[in-house]
Design brief:
Oligomer: single chain
Strand order of the largest sheet: 3-2-1-4-5-6
Structural class: alpha/beta
Order of helices and strands: EHEEHEHEEHH
Radius of gyration: 15 Å
Strand content: 5-15%
Number of strands: 6
Number of helices: 5
Length: 153
């Protein structure tokens, strides 16, 4: 993993606590963090943090993130199809709850996501996401720290 590796964030659905963690890591580790969203985002003054606003529309932010992602980058997203796109490019995808998507895991996650979509389309209530907990924040922090350590090598 090269020092030029960056962090790209699917920012529309990213919890504030995760963004704040990424802002601190950006300055501490001198790693570029780019938030991509279809709305205006406030970011702290930092040479390592930037926000990119894309036009509204289906998957516009996802396509921009996929376009920018390179091998070795870390993409923070809970969108499984986006995770699959960036993993295919050699990046890692990290869910805000700390689930890491790799070439070894993404196919199964994509299959499960598609299955759940099919169930919902037939009227089955599959429930929503569980509330965000401190253990999710800790799991994310652990995966982020691991990626940052790999980056330093």
């Amino acid at each position: 993993m090269s020092n030029a590796a960056q962090i790209l964030v699917d920012a529309d659905a990213c919890p504030v606590v995760i963004k704040e963690m990424l802002f601190r890591a950006a300055d501490r580790e001198q790693v570029m963090v780019t938030l991509v969203a279809n709305q205006y985002l406030r970011t702290p003054p930092s040479r390592y943090v930037r926000a990119v606003q894309v036009p509204g529309g289906f998957d516009v932010a996802d396509q921009e993130i996929a376009r920018r992602a390179n091998a070795g980058d870390l993409v923070v997203t809970q969108d499984i199809p986006l995770a699959a796109m960036v993993v295919e490019k050699g990046a890692l995808a990290l869910d805000p709850r700390g689930t890491l998507h790799t070439p070894d895991t993404i196919a199964q996650r994509l299959t499960m996501r598609n299955f759940m979509d099919e169930l919902r389309s037939t009227g089955v209530d599959t429930g929503g996401h569980a509330p965000f907990h401190a253990r999710d924040k800790q799991a994310f922090a652990n995966q982020l720290d691991h990626w940052l350590q790999q980056r330093r090598r």
